[in-house]
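Is this the right way to post structure tokens for a design question? Let me know if I should format differently. Anyway, here goes:
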């Protein structure tokens, strides 16, 4: 009996060690863009990358995608606010946060394929997707390339953002170590020494042509375009994107019957570097996500 007890105890120890190895150690995110989250962390093996994500809340799934040089923590109090009424699946994109880089270009199209694969990996038929800045580009491409997995779309994005990020590169690595972006990256990245590599890959990727206008016009997912009135791009550009989605074409009518399927929100007093963590973002997005999906354009 003692021999059997010893074997059982050994199996329990091995199992516990194995489970600890599978569960990623959760490190605290540092800097102004950091903070603690209540989500449970996991890795998904999709498309040759180990994609880190955290799940919080229950209900209809919402995939949440951060901005360039950020991580899921940058959404701050909006993570908990969004998770009160739905299941939030916040992701660290390729080369960001706890997701290590791999040997492929840092492409919004490739990352969109990762998100579609993650949705399928989780056994979901579809999900709402909310993306900010770079994450907005990934969300947009997910809706274009994989329309069947996208229910509703929230975009804090305009293609001009990606072109501006093309100005960064490895030469800026040392100078940018004083920024919240680096403080967050260094506290979470599996290989913090890859910081110059990440800057170089972002710079190279964002020099591509980002004229998505023809593809945007074909998006069928109900979409909310969100921007700050002091954003990195003029509010008129958000209006242009809204127009490509069928918005702003006619009077909505006294009964609202002429309203477009998609929505536009210009949030006062918000910049590109405050909007993602401002409580007004969740307050604007939640009613949109809670509305029934409208047919038509």
């Amino acid at each position: 009996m003692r021999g059997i007890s010893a074997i059982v105890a050994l199996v329990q120890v091995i199992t516990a060690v194995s489970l600890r190895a599978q569960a990623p150690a959760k490190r605290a995110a540092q800097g102004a863009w950091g903070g603690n989250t209540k989500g449970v962390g996991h890795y998904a093996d999709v498309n040759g990358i180990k994609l880190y994500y955290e799940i919080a809340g229950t209900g209809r799934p919402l995939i949440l995608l951060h901005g360039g040089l950020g991580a899921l923590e940058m959404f701050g109090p909006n993570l908990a606010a969004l998770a009160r009424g739905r299941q939030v699946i916040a992701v660290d994109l390729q080369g960001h946060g706890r997701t290590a880089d791999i040997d492929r270009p840092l492409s919004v199209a490739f990352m969109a394929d990762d998100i579609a694969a993650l949705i399928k990996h989780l056994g979901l038929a579809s999900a709402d997707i909310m993306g900010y800045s770079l994450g907005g580009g990934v969300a947009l491409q997910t809706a274009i390339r994989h329309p069947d997995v996208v229910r509703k779309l929230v975009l804090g994005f305009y293609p001009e953002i990606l072109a501006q990020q093309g100005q960064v590169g490895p030469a800026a690595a040392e100078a940018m170590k004083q920024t919240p972006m680096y403080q967050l990256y260094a506290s979470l990245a599996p290989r913090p020494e890859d910081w110059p590599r990440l800057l170089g890959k972002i710079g190279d990727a964002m020099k591509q042509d980002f004229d998505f206008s023809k593809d945007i016009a074909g998006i069928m997912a109900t979409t909310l375009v969100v921007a700050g009135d002091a954003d990195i791009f003029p509010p008129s550009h958000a209006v242009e994107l809204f127009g490509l989605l069928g918005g702003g074409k006619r009077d909505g009518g006294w009964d609202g019957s002429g309203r477009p399927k998609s929505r536009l929100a210009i949030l006062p007093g918000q910049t590109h570097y405050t909007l993602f963590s401002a409580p007004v973002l969740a307050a604007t997005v939640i009613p949109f996500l809670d509305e029934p999906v409208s047919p038509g354009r």
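Format looks fine. Someone answered above. Worth noting: Confidence is low (pLDDT under 50) at residues 1-23. The chain has one domain: 30-290.
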